[in-house]
Design goal:
It is built from 13 helices and 9 strands. The protein is of the alpha/beta class and 263 residues long. It folds into 2 domains: 186 residues, Vaccinia Virus protein VP39 (Rossmann fold), CATH 3.40.50; 67 residues, Helicase, Ruva Protein, domain 3. Helix 2 links the parallel strand 2 and strand 3. It starts with 11 loop residues before the first strand and ends with a helix. S-adenosylmethionine binds next to strand 1, helix 2 and strand 3.
Length: 263
């Protein structure tokens, strides 16, 4: 019996209901490509396979790779499952997914790299059309801004798509039990038109700089961090109060600010 590795964020799903909710949220059509990050012992993989998707599973733990190769010999042979040993953050997606192919990411991810996974897959050239991720509940709530307070992460996600919490998962649904609550977050990615895409780097930079000192007003942060812009004028033009904090503005507001800066 393999001992779960804490360092790799190994908390294996034991709840059929949670697995059902994740797969269901993925709305997989027959033959669709699904990337699963960290298949672990294959509990979710098994159901993803039943949904008729073509599953590509990336697992860092070599021991688990051997286990999965044995468990899914048939599926690997008939090419409904491709197993890749590696680190999801190093993976070159363009080598795996062809130029004209779409894909979805559906996974119970290792929580220690949640932010890195989201940032990477939203901003890469070949991004997925949908992400369904089981993650720490607090992080999912921060991304949807449940308390109406935005953050760098929530504003980054909302630039690319629409996040929605689908289902809450209790710690008892895993082995071993994680110390935190969990939730399934679905991010539907928008088709980003050229004009918006051209604002991407600027938007992300303005968001980041607006939160540089959280307690300070946003305009103060921006003035200090990005000096060659007339922030007072832009705020006035967009009818944004100069006393506002970054957490109280929406993705749309930040996009409008980026547009003005670019002019
Ligand atoms: N999918 C399984 C389940 O739901 O039971 C396991 C989920 S467990 C939370 C996370 C999995 O991701 C583990 O199997 C772990 O070994 C794997 N993992 C951790 N870091 C990884 C990385 N950087 N790249 C790919 N897989 C990773």
């Amino acid at each position: 019996m393999m001992k779960p590795k804490k360092s790799l964020g190994q908390n294996f799903l034991t709840s059929g209901k949670a697995i059902f909710e994740i797969v269901n949220a993925g709305e997989i059509k027959k033959g669709e490509i699904v990337i699963e990050i960290g298949p672990g012992k294959g509990a979710l993989t098994e159901e993803l396979l039943k949904s008729g998707g073509k599953i590509i599973a990336i697992e860092k733990d070599r021991e688990l790779i051997s286990y999965l190769e044995e468990k899914f010999t048939k599926e690997i042979k008939n090419k409904s499952l491709k197993l890749i040993e590696g680190d999801i953050l190093d993976l070159d997606i363009e080598k795996i997914i062809k130029k004209d192919e779409k894909y979805k990411i559906i996974a119970n991810i290792p929580y220690y790299i949640t932010g890195a996974i989201i940032e990477r897959f939203l901003s890469i050239k070949k991004s997925p059309e949908l992400m369904v991720l089981l993650m720490q509940k607090e992080v999912a709530e921060r991304i949807v801004a449940r308390d109406k307070k935005e953050s760098i992460l929530s504003l980054a996600v909302k630039f690319y798509g629409i996040p929605k919490i689908i289902y809450k998962v209790s710690a008892g649904s895993f082995f071993p039990k994680p110390k935190v609550g969990s939730a399934v977050l679905k991010i539907t990615l928008n088709k980003i038109h050229k004009e918006k895409k051209s604002l991407e780097a600027l938007y992300l930079n303005i968001v980041k700089k607006s939160f540089a000192h959280k307690r300070k007003m946003m305009i103060g942060n921006l003035k200090k961090e990005i000096k060659d812009t007339n922030w007072e004028e832009i705020f006035k033009k967009l009818n944004i109060k100069t006393t506002i904090r970054g957490e109280d503005l929406s993705e749309k507001d930040f996009t409008n600010i980026a547009k003005e800066v670019k002019k």
